[in-house]
Every structure is written in structure tokens, then in C-alpha cells.
């Protein structure tokens, strides 16, 4: 599932290519991917321009010239491709937004969605999300985590605690902080809490710089998207050697949550 770095990569790339361009056509191939009747959705989107693209947690927000918003959540298996009829992936496209010959394809939206929302509706939809990692101070993080008793892994992926972190980067953050992903939050020392906080922003920043870990290209000739996939430290590296100590990375599951970690570095 795309996490903060993947969605931020999408935001940056799309902001360079579709801002202030008129949406000339809207094609809906799966009604359940949107929240309006097809004709209603199309009439409110076609002919408008995207004036700004924001990210909140794992969502993208396309601000329209009408004052409304398109809220995107790709969920599991969803991705986007920016291209045209000659280079589009041979995959089912649930939604297609056209900007003349340029088209933005929304692919794999079996669980994901693209919803048309007013500013008020948008605020209500996103109201329960926790703070953005890059906006979180060390003092606020220490206060937040001091009230928690559960394991670090499910805590870090809880969008009400911190927004945007999922399975991949929670493992990467715990590894960077030398903490076991199933260590209890209330058992952390002051030094360990600082180490955990200190790992969050660098891990996410590096992932954004490398284009995230999802390897579906955003456009033809895209060499950046998915660049973090070859730089993962522990996530889905079960049986491979730890880069620090050489110990084999292990996979562990607890309460249906899988995690990858180094049993020596992250005791």
C-alpha cells in the first residue's frame, strides 16, 4: 500500500505536470471508485482545472477551480500513471482524467477511491488523522507516546497516532532506531524515545528523495519512482543479511501484523 513517501512522490511529479491544466474529459469505468453518480461526478469535474495538489497522510487532495476537491486514497494495489493512449499500461483503469492528449490513469482502485468533496466534507473525512510526521516536534511526540502502552509497530501504523506511516516505513524506522517493532511503548527509556523520534523524519525524507518503494512507474521512462525499493534496510528482506551486523533479517507476526527486523540489532 502506498505510504507517505509514495504519495509525496506522486504529489511532486503531478504538480509539475497537471497544475492549471483543464480537465477535458472524465472516464469512469468503476462506479464504486467514486462517491457520486457518474453523470454528477463528471459534470462537476470536467472543464475544471486542478489548482493545487496537497497530501494528507496517505491521501492526495486535488483542489479544483470550482472550490471542490478530489480526495484520492489508493489503498492496497492502487497506483497512477501519467501518459497517453499509446503508452498507457495494459491494465484496467477505474478512472481516467484527461488533460487534452495527456491522461492521468487511476489503476487498481478495487479498494481505493477518488471522491468529490466540498471543503467541509473534506475536513470531516480527514478529521481523525493524527499529526503529520514532519510537523511533529520531539516534545509533542514524547507526550503522545508516553500515554500509549501497546507495541511500537501497530502504534506507528495507526493513522490516528501519526499520519502516513504504514508497514514498510514503520519497520524501517524501528530498525534505524535499534528498537524491536514489538517493544512496548510504555517500556521505552527516555533515550529510546528520542531515538525513535529521531529516526522518523530521516527515514521518510530519504524514501521521498529516492521515490518511495512502489515500483510501478509514474510515466514512461520514469527512473525515480520505486527507487527506495533497492534501499530497504529490513522490510521484506527476510533471510537476507543485516547491513549493520550481518545477522539474517527475520519476519515475525503478531495480531496479524507482520514485521521485519534484525534479531541482533533490535533486541
UniProtKB/TrEMBL annotation:
Catalysed transformations (reactions): 2'-deoxyribonucleotide-(2'-deoxyribose 5'-phosphate)-2'-deoxyribonucleotide-DNA = a 3'-end 2'-deoxyribonucleotide-(2,3-dehydro-2,3-deoxyribose 5'-phosphate)-DNA + a 5'-end 5'-phospho-2'-deoxyribonucleoside-DNA + H(+); Hydrolysis of DNA containing ring-opened 7-methylguanine residues, releasing 2,6-diamino-4-hydroxy-5-(N-methyl)formamidopyrimidine
Keyword terms: DNA damage, DNA repair, DNA-binding, Glycosidase, Hydrolase, Lyase, Metal-binding, Multifunctional enzyme, Zinc, Zinc-finger
One Pfam entry name: Fapy_DNA_glyco
Ranges for domain Formamidopyrimidine-DNA glycosylase catalytic: 2-106
UniProt protein name: DNA-formamidopyrimidine glycosylase
Entry keyword annotation includes Hydrolase: yes
Lineage, broadest ranks: Bacteria, Bacillati, Bacillota, Bacilli, Bacillales
GO-annotated molecular function: 8-oxo-7,8-dihydroguanine DNA N-glycosylase activity; class I DNA-(apurinic or apyrimidinic site) endonuclease activity; damaged DNA binding; double-stranded DNA binding; zinc ion binding
Subunit structure: Monomer.
PANTHER family in alphabetical order: FORMAMIDOPYRIMIDINE-DNA GLYCOSYLASE
Family listed: Belongs to the FPG family.
